[in-house]
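Slide 14.
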Amino acid sequence: MRAAVVETAGGGFTVEDVGIDAPRDREVLVEVRACGLCHTDLTVATHGLGRLRPPVVLGHEVAGVVLGTGPRATEFTAGDHVVGCLVQWCGTCPACRAGRYHQCARPEETLRAPGHRAPRLSRSGRPVTQGMGLGGFAQRILVHENQLTAVPRRLPFDTAALLGCGVLTGVGSVLNGARVRPGETVAVIGAGGVGLNAIGGARIAGASRIVAVDVRDGSLRRAREFGATDVVDSAATDAVAAVRELTGGGVRHAFDVVGLAATTEQALGMTALGGAVHVVGLTAGDGADLTLSLPRLLLQQKTLQGLIMGAADPRRDIPRYAELCLRGELDLDALVSRRIALHEIDEGYAAARDPEVARVVVTRF
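Slide 15: predicted structure.
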């Protein structure tokens, strides 16, 4: 099959022929129909592969059709429409049994044990690493059934692909992680793909005031379309002062979708007495070390928490968000700005720097 392979950090994506094994045990073989270009994959491909030994196939916002299953797979049959998710969960550890799948203690159980079996992906007889257990920048994926969720067949593949990461993280951070209640006030710092979904989640939760903070006019314009009641250009004004003035003293919840010490500090400043700051994003490089004043945190009664993947239960949340999309309550169509071919991933990531572009999706393989 054809797959976009990363050979070295910063070397870009090269489309090559890669072998894919037959499904074993609880694995599912899926024909990929769409895969979103998430910034996480670009960060890994550009700044370092970490535990992902090159060559590696990245891509984790995946939607497709089941082609076949291993003998122990029970969740899917051929023809099912599915969405992949990078939450890797074993189903048996204490966190999984408590429904905290995003905190699974044994995510490696969704992978093939190295050295014991043929690799899922290979090239010229050598293993090719499968990023996040998915490797969606390819014509097909071979994945543990726990990383897949069935979705309605009437949901378009290009929008369905976004459910497993950007939507799950953005909407889930509001509904699951922060548990925003009707009438509460919200600020979202960073109105990219995840931030727009957080804004949409706040609207669904019934927040009375939703303030979007960004440095780009295009992003702020889209934020209004997704439900922001107010927007703040933090390049032109003091964002903390602006949010506090708009909300009469600060918001109940501030979501930092950028993930820099400076933006988390802004979020702390935007929240009212007893407010909560939710760190959703993470930016690679300098500026990630936050200095906290413990007296300030205590006296202002602030809560600070990190949220991974929207504290998601993928099997519960992905179908829920799919239905919201089909009912028109989540406008995922508006997130898909461009549809590209597999060999255009580098160009797609370059295009994503444009503030007018929300999400780029590979739809031609």
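Speaker note: The first helix runs from residue 39 to 47.
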